[in-house]
Fold this protein.
Amino acid sequence: MLRKKYALAYAMATKFPPLSQTFQYQKMEERWEDTFDNAQRQIAHGRVENAIALLNEYATIAHKRPIIKLVLKHNKDFIVFLQAIESDNFKTIDKLAQSNPLFTLIPSYKNVKNSMQQLIQSISKDIQKCNLESAVKKLSSLQNIDSIAETVSLQKNECKAVKKLQDAYKINDFITCFEVIDVNRFLNSTELGILLQSHWTKLISQCEIFALKGNVKEIKEKLGELIGLKTRRDKIGDLFRLAFHTRIKALIHKKTYKSAESIIYSYLDIFGSDREVLSIMQTYEAKSKTKLAITQKTRVPRDAWIHADAIMGM
């Protein structure tokens, strides 16, 4: 009677998929998983007749018939598979599941897959906290598993990047720190990356205040060695451009046109023309009644602002 009841219930769920989301269906699946796990234990202990009796009520359910047949055959691979599940041998489980897709229908296989995903998530958290010892130890249990090989490879590379960042930080090599972060964007969400980015943001905020005052010397002193940080050259260049713009405007306002003209030419040598400096040049020509002689065709290297304080007489 119970066999017919289950067969009808599963047949209806197959015909009407939304039924598989009901509480009643979930309870049936829980009972099936418990029964199946019990049958596995009976097989493992050589009590095949007990396993047959347990699974008999599900024998008429079409989509469960193949896995029941696999269990009752209890071939060598199946026994190895069960042993691998008990010992969390992910490599063997994955290898056997790929060689025989029926193994993936075993209820306990779903738990194994969940365990692997939870371990991967745990490794990601370790990497975020820069806890490399824990991350590397956990990764060792996930080696050579084809289904997650790409993810594991990515996490191993992330560990290498974190190690490189930590090593640079220990010796106060901040240029390398930020270069590593800029090449490996995920480091922005790690604890050490967040700390370094917070320092950078504070540094740039202070430099922006100096730039608004046209104070190139203070920008250079505040940036220190980071003035040569190639991966953030554009941002550093923006600070110096702003400082130049502010300085030139101040000189024009003071009617110190000769100095303003000299710095305009220096600006063009370093940065070339842009909308802001073209506007400033128009203002200069209008107020000084002097036409600028723009003949410079070449530009010095992009990091020429390193010597900008000398150019601006500051």
Q: What stands out?
A: Residues 237 and 305 are 7 Å apart (CA to CA). Residues 224-311 form one domain.
